[in-house]
Write a structure and sequence with these properties.
With about 525 residues, the protein is mainly beta. The protein is built from eight helices and 40 strands. The longest helix is centred in the last third of the chain and has 11 residues.
């Protein structure tokens, strides 16, 4: 584990040609762009949590059957300050940084207390977001960083708060058929209210006679907001769901304690300690109608759970069907403290809750006079239920689809639509994936890829240009290895058969990442396309 998580990774800003075995499809051209932590020690200081590490972007550029690799640290303000000081001076979620003893600690403390919510880091290490022709490194706070997907150069810093009153935002936005970004953020104690805000960013700014760079964020639209059930204890969420007509938000009892967050610096604790799972609370299911921009009045709920990733949601016969990866506790986050990932530590912490892919079904239309205890789900294809309670609320119990998978991806052409296949990483007692799987929801069967000493990243599905079926395409996953004689590689699988068709081996110390996207050559700017062509010469 230490070889995967504990060591700083060297960046490789200039392209390195990979050695390709097998044959990459001729239509496959573009960039697999990924994001994740790559540096956990700065000087003599070390981060506590794997999610705190400095963001290391890396990419695999594919053209004419050849692959070129490069990586570069995100030059965030946090990175620059830390490197200049040769120590950790900017706090991350699991690591609270303190000023030099020779500096005035009281001035720093006063700065924290003078704001309800402290300013967060711009170390955007979780995902990549597309906005029109632009790309951004993202995390879960109010900052995103524009990047060049070809050179991995860090460009401008963007603060959501200049356009919408939010302190936190998800790193898993959705994209509609027009290219708009749909995302959610939390507005904490703003004008006496804490709420969850759904907003939309257009893919391009309206035309005007003025010269200069367009700014799509200036045209950000707040679609709706949902009041938090608690002013000082809003729900944590990592993602959300969408269907054709609805936005799906799960208000889970994994909550952020705002008072603890505001005083974390003074109390000498990290921000992660301000997240608390309330195992006896309910999980509330919110459906926002895209047309009316209002939360449906019915009260849907289920048992306490923790979830990070939505898989998909769709409507069928006046029901909303949605699939999520859920846990019965928050042990996953605790598992990623570096002390727990060190294989030399005795009594290694293990997951006490296995991730489960569960299907929930919410009736969109039902008899309001139905008897208490009646199951309102009328779909014969599922065992999920939605039972009316005495107080009129509806208790939803899920169908178990499968256990032990995380980092789910689908063919995004089927996002918000009825679908059949989930591509994911298999996770059991350890948080590190050991397999890539294809799960067939219809037949409840799995196809696997695994290899000894190999640790796969989140699988990314790329549809073939002449696709006729949902799984016509390929799967890409970058593979970290822990066998010294085995080099890391980019794995290319046939998505239908799950058989390996190629791999591109690179002689670098590859880092285990979190999320990313594939950018087809057709989606790159003209100058980037030229760069991609030049890179192959």
């Amino acid at each position: 584990m230490e070889a995967i998580f504990g060591q700083n990774k060297e960046e490789h800003p200039e392209p390195i040609q990979a050695e390709v075995s097998g044959e990459i499809p001729s239509w496959m051209e573009g960039i697999l762009l990924r994001n994740g932590p790559g540096m956990h020690t700065i000087g003599e200081s070390k981060y506590n949590h794997w999610f705190d590490g400095m963001a290391l972007l890396h990419s695999f550029t594919i053209k004419n059957g050849e692959v070129f690799y490069r990586s570069k640290y995100l030059r965030s303000d946090s990175y620059n300050c830390n490197i200049e000081a040769n120590r950790i001076v900017v706090s991350e979620f699991g690591t609270m940084a303190y000023p030099d003893p020779c500096k005035n600690i009281f001035a720093k403390a006063f700065c924290y207390l003078s704001h309800t919510i402290p300013e967060f880091t711009d170390n955007c290490l979780i995902n990549i977001m597309k906005n029109g022709e632009d790309y951004y490194a993202t995390s879960e706070v109010n900052f995103i960083r524009k990047i060049d997907p070809q050179t991995l150069e860090t460009l401008e810093k963007v603060d959501y708060t200049k356009y919408v009153a939010i302190n936190l935002a998800t790193s898993h936005p959705h994209y509609d058929s027009s290219g708009n970004i749909l995302n959610m953020g939390t507005s904490i104690v703003d004008k006496g209210k804490t709420k969850y805000v759904v907003f939309k960013i257009p893919p391009s700014a309206p035309a005007s006679g003025k010269k200069g760079k367009k700014n799509c964020l200036k045209h950000l639209e707040v679609m709706c907001s949902i009041p938090s059930r608690s002013l000082l204890h809003p729900s944590y969420y990592h993602s959300f769901g969408i269907s054709e007509n609805y936005i799906l938000f799960i208000e889970q009892p994994f909550k952020l304690d705002i008072l603890k967050l505001a005083t974390a610096y003074i109390r000498g604790v990290n921000w992660a300690s301000c997240l608390i799972f309330h195992k006896d609370d309910k999980t509330w299911i919110h459906l926002i109608d895209k047309r009316t921009k209002k939360d449906l009045p019915a009260k849907f709920y289920t048992d306490a759970m923790v979830l990070f990733h939505h898989v998909n949601a769709y409507e069928e016969d006046n029901h909303l069907v949605f699939d999520v990866i859920s846990y019965t506790d928050n042990s996953l986050y605790q598992m990623f403290y570096l002390k727990n990932l060190d294989s030399n530590v005795e009594n290694n912490v293990r997951l006490t809750s296995t991730p489960s892919c569960k299907r929930f079904v919410v009736p969109l239309q039902y008899d309001k006079d139905a008897e208490v205890g009646v199951n309102l789900v009328r779909l014969p294809s599922t065992t999920a239920t939605a039972v009316k309670e005495k107080d009129g609320s509806i208790y939803c119990q899920p169908e178990m689809l499968c256990e032990g998978i995380e980092l789910p991806r689908i063919n995004y052409d089927y996002n918000g639509k009825k679908y059949r296949y989930i591509f994911a990483a298999e996770v059991k007692w350890s948080p590190v994936p050991t397999q890539i799987v294809k799960f067939d929801i219809l037949t409840k069967t799995k196809l696997h890829w695994e290899e000894e000493y190999c640790w796969p990243a989140e699988p990314v599905f790329v549809p073939s240009p002449d696709a006729k079926e949902e799984d016509d395409g390929i799967i890409l996953s970058n593979i970290v290895t822990t066998e010294p004689r085995k080099l890391p590689f980019l794995l290319v699988l046939d998505a239908k058969t799950f058989k390996e068709i190629a791999r591109a081996t690179v002689n670098v110390d590859l880092h285990l990442d979190l999320h990313g996207i594939f950018i087809p050559k057709t989606d790159l700017k003209t100058e980037c396309k030229a760069d991609l062509d030049t890179e192959q010469e």
